[in-house]
Amino acid sequence: MSDRLTTIRRHFAAGTVDTATRLQPEHLFGGAGFFDRLGVKEQQQASSDTARKPNRREELAGRISALGLWENVKDLDTQGYTIVDNAIPPHLVSALRERVMHLAEPQLGKKRRSGAKFAQVGSLLYKGEVFEQAVQLPKQMALAEYMVGASYGVWQLLASVRGEGTQGLPCHNDPGPGWREPFQPYPEMVTSLFLLDEFDEGAGSTFVCPATHHMCRRPRLADAEDRALIQRLAVPVVARAGSIVMWDARLWHGSLPRSTCGERAVLSYAASRVHQKLSDDHSQLSAETLARNGLAFARMVGRNTGYGEGGVTGGVLAGGAREGARTTKWQQEEESTSELDPFSRMQSHR
Description:
The protein is an alpha+beta fold. The strands form two sheets. It has a six-stranded antiparallel sheet with strand order 1-7-4-9-3-2, covered by helices on one side. Strands 6-5-8 form a three-stranded antiparallel sheet, with no helix packed on it. The chain is built from 13 helices and nine strands.
C-alpha cells in the first residue's frame, strides 16, 4: 500500500482530512449541468416550486378517482385481487371474442382423447388491432400502473378457450422463471383476466386464495399445511362478461373444471415492472403498429424505456440515458408518494 493511501486513510479515520484530500460535492453528487444532460432538470426545480405541477403518481391518483377505482386499489392491497366491472366496452368484448375464437379454431378442431376442447394462443399483439385496444383500456391501465409503475411492460398476452369437460389448473402463482423466493414485498407483476364470457364456478372460472400475496412465496402443494390453507381460503371468481379480474402475481390462485356446455374465452395479460425481462418478444412489431398507438403503448412494448434498444448503434450513447432518467424519475415518484405506493400500503395489511 502506498504511503499516500496510508496517510489518507489515517486522516479519514481521525476526521482530519484536509481540503485538498477531501472529495468535493460536485464530484459526488453531480456537477452543474449533470441533471440537465439527463433531462431531469424539471424535477429539481419542482422540489422548490410551491406551484409545481402534479407528478406522475399524483396524476395517477386523479385518474383513479375519476374512474372510481379506489375500492379496487384497496382490494388489491388487502386481498391481492379485485374484480373491475364494466371494464371492457360491449362492442370490444364481442370483437375480442370473435377474434379469439377464429385464432383458436385450428386447436379446437383437434380430436383429443378426452373429447374436451381446449386452445391457447399467444403473442396476441401480432394478431390483430383489437388486442392493441385491449391493453389500453383506462381502468386496467390505471390499476396496472398503480401496481407495477408507470413504465410497466406487456410481459405476456395470450388467449385461452376451454370447453365442457376441461380440467382446471392447480393452485399456483404467476412469477415466472427466474423469480426467486422470497418474492419482493411489493408487486413486480400484475395479472389481468379479461372475461369474454360469464364466469362462475361451473364455467371453469378462476379461484383465488385471498391475502396470500402477503406470503411472498409459492404454494407448496405437497405440504399438508399449505393444502389445508388453500382448501380453507379458496373462493371462485364470479363475474360478468366485460369484467376484468386483476390480481397481484404473488397471489395463490388456480382454475376450476368446466362443467357448463359450450366454450368460455378469456384473455390473460401479465404486466411487469420495467426492469423485468418480458416473456413475449415485441421486437418485431411494425412501425405502423407503434405509430397508431402512441408513446404509452410504445413504452409498454419496451420502446423508450432506457433498456435494451437500438442494437449496435443503441444504448445510452444513442439517447437511452435520457429515457432511463425519465423511467427512474417515475419510479422515485412512486416510492415518495406514500399514499399511492403499493409497498407502503401493503405493509400495513401484513
